[in-house]
Structure formats: structure tokens, C-alpha cells
Amino acid sequence: MFDARCLMFDLASSRRLRGKRGPVDRRVRVGGFTLTELLVTMSVLVLLVFLFTQLLNSAATTMTLGNKRMDADSQARQLLDRMAIDFDQMLKRTDVSYYVKTLGNTQAGNDQIAFFSAVPGYYSQAGYNSNASLVAYRVNADSTSASYNKLERMGKGLALNAAYTPGPSGSPIPLLFLDSANTTTIQNIWPAAASSTTADSDYETAGPQVFRFEYYYLLSSSPSIGTANQLSAGPWSSTNTFSVKDVAAIVVAIAVIEPKSKVLLSNDQIAALAGTLPDFTTDWVPGQLLTQWQNALNANTLGLPRAAISGIRLYERYFYLSQ
Q1: How far is residue 248 CA from its own chain's centroid?
Q2: Which residues pair with 323 in a beta bridge?
Q3: Helix (H/G/I), strand (E/B), else coil: 135
Q4: Contact indicator for 109, 164 with CB cutoff of 8 Å
Q5: Mean pLDDT in each 10-residue stretch from start to end of the chain (323 residues)?
Q6: Among 65, 97, 197, CA closest to 144
Q7: Among 80, 79, 312, 82, which residue's Cα sits nearest to residue 207?
Q8: Is there a contact between 218 and 247 (Cβ–Cβ < 8 Å)?
Q9: CA dist 149 to 73, 76, 253, Å?
Q10: For 140-185, where are the E strands, in sequence order?
Q11: Residue 291 β-bridge partners
Q12: Which residues pair with residue 214 across a beta bridge?
């Protein structure tokens, strides 16, 4: 009897418990987002996507500009390093010819320079070759040339034998000394070294993106002509009276346009753009030339694409001449 009653009590208790819990288990609350919550969530998501896109675009622009600067820097460094070797080995004598900027040869626009240097060069004929060359730099101004608007370098090897006699191209020409009549000058013997359009097979492209080339002088502490330690466009009356002893350093400035920006401009536009960058003026302070060039680029009087202008970099270096 006791066991039966206990069993009946347990069954009854179980029914009462199920009766109390049953309705609670069946009442499951179904929740969801309201319209306001959805709108707020979508707004936040759109804002995050917009910010991420802006960040991505900014990073891409920064990377593009960085690559442009690296391309220009690399080319400028190679060219200026080549010039450093040539200027360092320049023959500094009073009895040889130079083709440089002076009062009698002001060279408006892109400059040209030619001098003898103790560096290897190209020899058209074998034998009796010296260790000296005629070195020249120019920006090619021949619109029919493949090197138009590009900086070129000549390294013409000079022979030790024979004397100069006018003759067919390829005749051996030795290192020349100035005669009393000033006929054995660089511009007379090698006209391509003193011209921006005359062709010469010994010219090679040294700066394909360099479209503006300018140089001037830092005079020595005791020059024969000019003011001591002055920046000068050249105080000498003519090329033949140029005295390298008066020069402490030759200062070279170049403008380089990176390749992706260059394709946005025609050759005529590049030539016109070079013409807007002013020549150096005597008594300008250090850095003023590049400031004037940057101001001209910012003014953009030709109305050229800003994307092309932004790809132009300006460089300047002092090449000190050991006396």
C-alpha cells in the first residue's frame, strides 16, 4: 500500500509540474529589427564603405606619386653622376678651347657645354688613341630627330697622332690646342658640339626625360673678372676668353618629366614648356633658379594638363672644380 501511494503521488506531482511548465515552454518570443534600426545600420555601413574607398584612393594616389618621383630621381641621379665624372676630369688649361656660356654666348633657353675631359670616349679609328675625349651636353632641338627634347651626351675620343687637317668625316683628330688666330676651337672643329640641331653619331641619349638644361657658375674667391664668390651667368666677354681658374663650381639645373606624364604632352608642347622656364640671371641667390622654375610650372600659362605638370621634378647640383 505504501509503495502504491508513493507511486500515485509521484504521478500526480509530475502531471502538475508539466501543467505549470508546459505553457511557459510554448510561449517563445519572436524578436526582430525595427525600421529605424535597419536605417541606422545601413547608414553606418555606407559611411564605412565610403571612408574605406577614400582611404584606398588616397593610398593609390600616394603610391603613384611616389613611383613618379622615384622614376625622375633615378634618371636625374644617373645623369648628374655622369656629369660629376666628366667635370671632375675636365682639362683645366688656358691653352685649350671650351664651349661654354659667357657674355658673348648667353645661350637663351636650353644651354650647351663642351670641353675636354680625361675620360674614355668613342674612337672612329683604331690606334694612337688618347685617354682624353671631347665631352658635350645638350638638349636636342631638332624636331625631326628621335632624340628631340631629350638631353644628349657626346664622348668623342681624341687621337694622339697627326695634326688637324680639314678632310672627310672620320679623319683622325687629336687633342687640339688654341692657335693665335683662335681657329682651332671646339665650335670650329666639331660644330655639332656647339649646336643643338647638328647631328653627330657620337651623341647618345643620356637623359630621355630631361627637357630643360641650364648651368651657371660659382666664381672663385679671387676671379680675374667678376665678383668673388658670386653666382654668375658668365662674366667673360667670349667663349675663348673663358678662364676655368675663375670658377669654383659649375652649377647644373635640370627639369625632368616622368614617362607617364610625358605621354600627355606633344613634343611641341614640351618645347614650349621648356621655354617658360627662365634662364639664370647673375646675382640670383642660391636656389632662386629652381624657385623661378617652380613658379612658372605653377602658373602653367600654356594651359597644359595638370597631371603632366605634376610629373615634373627639378634638380640642381654644384660640381666643384679642383684647381
Answers
A1: 25
A2: none
A3: strand
A4: no
A5: 48 50 52 77 86 77 62 88 95 89 92 94 72 93 96 89 49 70 85 94 94 96 91 88 90 94 94 97 94 97 93 96 79
A6: 197
A7: 79
A8: yes
A9: 19, 15, 16
A10: 151-159
A11: none
A12: 253
